[in-house]
Write a sequence for this structure.
Protein backbone atom coordinates (compact mmCIF):
# COMPACT_ATOMS: atom_id res chain seq x y z
CA UNK A 1 0.00 0.00 0.00
CA UNK A 2 1.32 3.44 -0.91
CA UNK A 3 2.07 6.06 1.72
CA UNK A 4 -0.13 9.09 2.32
CA UNK A 5 1.41 11.80 0.16
CA UNK A 6 0.55 14.71 2.45
CA UNK A 7 2.32 13.34 5.53
CA UNK A 8 6.02 13.67 6.31
CA UNK A 9 8.12 10.92 7.90
CA UNK A 10 7.19 12.13 11.39
CA UNK A 11 3.49 12.26 10.50
CA UNK A 12 3.47 16.02 10.04
CA UNK A 13 1.15 17.54 7.44
CA UNK A 14 2.83 18.95 4.35
CA UNK A 15 2.11 20.10 0.82
CA UNK A 16 3.57 17.65 -1.69
CA UNK A 17 6.65 19.03 -3.46
CA UNK A 18 5.98 18.79 -7.19
CA UNK A 19 8.77 21.20 -8.18
CA UNK A 20 10.90 18.52 -9.82
CA UNK A 21 8.09 17.00 -11.86
CA UNK A 22 7.71 17.87 -15.54
CA UNK A 23 4.66 19.69 -16.85
CA UNK A 24 1.97 17.32 -18.14
CA UNK A 25 -1.41 17.84 -19.73
CA UNK A 26 -3.87 16.52 -17.19
CA UNK A 27 -7.58 15.86 -17.26
CA UNK A 28 -10.03 14.60 -14.66
CA UNK A 29 -13.72 13.78 -14.81
CA UNK A 30 -15.90 13.48 -11.71
CA UNK A 31 -19.55 12.67 -11.28
CA UNK A 32 -22.16 12.88 -8.54
CA UNK A 33 -25.89 13.02 -8.00
CA UNK A 34 -28.54 14.75 -5.97
CA UNK A 35 -31.29 12.21 -5.30
CA UNK A 36 -34.78 13.63 -4.84
CA UNK A 37 -38.47 12.97 -5.12
CA UNK A 38 -39.68 12.57 -8.72
CA UNK A 39 -41.92 15.63 -8.20
CA UNK A 40 -38.87 17.74 -7.31
CA UNK A 41 -37.03 16.58 -10.43
CA UNK A 42 -40.08 17.41 -12.51
CA UNK A 43 -40.21 20.94 -11.08
CA UNK A 44 -36.52 21.44 -11.86
CA UNK A 45 -37.04 20.19 -15.45
CA UNK A 46 -39.84 22.73 -15.94
CA UNK A 47 -37.82 25.78 -14.89
CA UNK A 48 -37.01 28.35 -17.61
CA UNK A 49 -33.50 28.95 -18.97
CA UNK A 50 -31.28 30.79 -16.46
CA UNK A 51 -32.74 28.74 -13.63
CA UNK A 52 -31.39 26.84 -10.65
CA UNK A 53 -29.54 24.36 -12.86
CA UNK A 54 -27.53 27.09 -14.59
CA UNK A 55 -26.79 28.54 -11.17
CA UNK A 56 -25.48 25.13 -10.05
CA UNK A 57 -23.38 24.82 -13.20
CA UNK A 58 -21.79 28.23 -12.62
CA UNK A 59 -21.22 27.47 -8.93
CA UNK A 60 -19.34 24.30 -9.91
CA UNK A 61 -17.14 26.19 -12.37
CA UNK A 62 -16.38 28.91 -9.81
CA UNK A 63 -15.59 26.32 -7.13
CA UNK A 64 -13.15 24.44 -9.38
CA UNK A 65 -11.22 27.67 -9.86
CA UNK A 66 -10.97 28.15 -6.07
CA UNK A 67 -10.18 24.59 -5.01
CA UNK A 68 -6.78 25.44 -3.52
CA UNK A 69 -8.50 28.00 -1.27
CA UNK A 70 -10.94 25.36 0.00
CA UNK A 71 -8.68 22.30 0.35
CA UNK A 72 -5.65 23.33 2.45
CA UNK A 73 -2.92 21.23 0.81
CA UNK A 74 -4.03 21.50 -2.83
CA UNK A 75 -1.74 23.31 -5.23
CA UNK A 76 -3.24 26.29 -7.05
CA UNK A 77 -3.56 25.21 -10.68
CA UNK A 78 -3.96 27.18 -13.89
CA UNK A 79 -7.10 25.57 -15.26
CA UNK A 80 -7.21 25.55 -19.04
CA UNK A 81 -10.76 24.16 -19.12
CA UNK A 82 -13.59 23.37 -16.74
CA UNK A 83 -16.96 22.09 -17.85
CA UNK A 84 -19.88 21.23 -15.59
CA UNK A 85 -23.02 19.54 -16.91
CA UNK A 86 -26.21 19.26 -14.90
CA UNK A 87 -28.86 16.80 -16.14
CA UNK A 88 -32.23 16.15 -14.52
CA UNK A 89 -33.40 12.54 -14.52
CA UNK A 90 -36.51 10.91 -13.12
CA UNK A 91 -35.54 11.22 -9.46
CA UNK A 92 -32.11 12.83 -9.48
CA UNK A 93 -29.89 15.51 -10.89
CA UNK A 94 -26.68 14.06 -12.28
CA UNK A 95 -23.66 16.34 -12.31
CA UNK A 96 -20.49 15.74 -14.32
CA UNK A 97 -17.40 17.95 -14.21
CA UNK A 98 -14.35 17.85 -16.45
CA UNK A 99 -11.25 19.81 -15.46
CA UNK A 100 -8.07 20.24 -17.50
CA UNK A 101 -4.68 21.83 -16.91
CA UNK A 102 -1.05 21.67 -17.93
CA UNK A 103 0.77 21.40 -14.63
CA UNK A 104 2.99 19.27 -12.39
CA UNK A 105 0.12 17.74 -10.46
CA UNK A 106 -3.32 16.30 -11.15
CA UNK A 107 -6.60 18.12 -11.47
CA UNK A 108 -8.94 15.59 -9.85
CA UNK A 109 -9.60 17.71 -6.76
CA UNK A 110 -10.87 20.51 -9.00
CA UNK A 111 -13.27 18.16 -10.80
CA UNK A 112 -14.50 16.69 -7.50
CA UNK A 113 -14.92 20.15 -5.97
CA UNK A 114 -16.92 21.31 -8.99
CA UNK A 115 -19.31 18.36 -8.71
CA UNK A 116 -19.73 18.75 -4.96
CA UNK A 117 -20.42 22.49 -5.00
CA UNK A 118 -22.80 22.14 -7.95
CA UNK A 119 -24.66 19.41 -6.00
CA UNK A 120 -24.81 21.59 -2.91
CA UNK A 121 -26.25 24.40 -5.03
CA UNK A 122 -29.00 22.15 -6.42
CA UNK A 123 -29.72 21.02 -2.87
CA UNK A 124 -29.89 24.61 -1.65
CA UNK A 125 -32.23 25.65 -4.46
CA UNK A 126 -34.67 22.77 -3.92
CA UNK A 127 -34.52 22.21 -0.15
CA UNK A 128 -37.68 24.25 0.44
CA UNK A 129 -39.78 21.72 -1.47
CA UNK A 130 -37.92 18.46 -0.73
CA UNK A 131 -36.61 17.66 2.75
CA UNK A 132 -35.50 14.14 1.77
CA UNK A 133 -32.86 14.97 -0.88
CA UNK A 134 -29.40 13.49 -0.61
CA UNK A 135 -26.09 14.04 -2.32
CA UNK A 136 -24.47 10.77 -3.32
CA UNK A 137 -21.99 8.93 -5.47
CA UNK A 138 -19.45 11.75 -5.81
CA UNK A 139 -16.58 9.94 -7.47
CA UNK A 140 -13.64 10.36 -9.80
CA UNK A 141 -14.47 8.49 -13.01
CA UNK A 142 -11.44 9.33 -15.14
CA UNK A 143 -7.95 10.73 -14.73
CA UNK A 144 -5.44 11.13 -17.55
CA UNK A 145 -1.92 12.47 -17.94
CA UNK A 146 -0.06 13.10 -21.21
CA UNK A 147 3.27 14.74 -21.97
CA UNK A 148 2.95 18.51 -22.36
Amino acid sequence: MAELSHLGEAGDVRMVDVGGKPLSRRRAVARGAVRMAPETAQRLRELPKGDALVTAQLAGIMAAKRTSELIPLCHPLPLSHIEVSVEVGGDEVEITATAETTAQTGVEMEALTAVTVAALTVYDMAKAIDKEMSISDVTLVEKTKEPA
About this structure: The first strand starts at residue 24 and ends at 35. The chain has a mean pLDDT of 93.
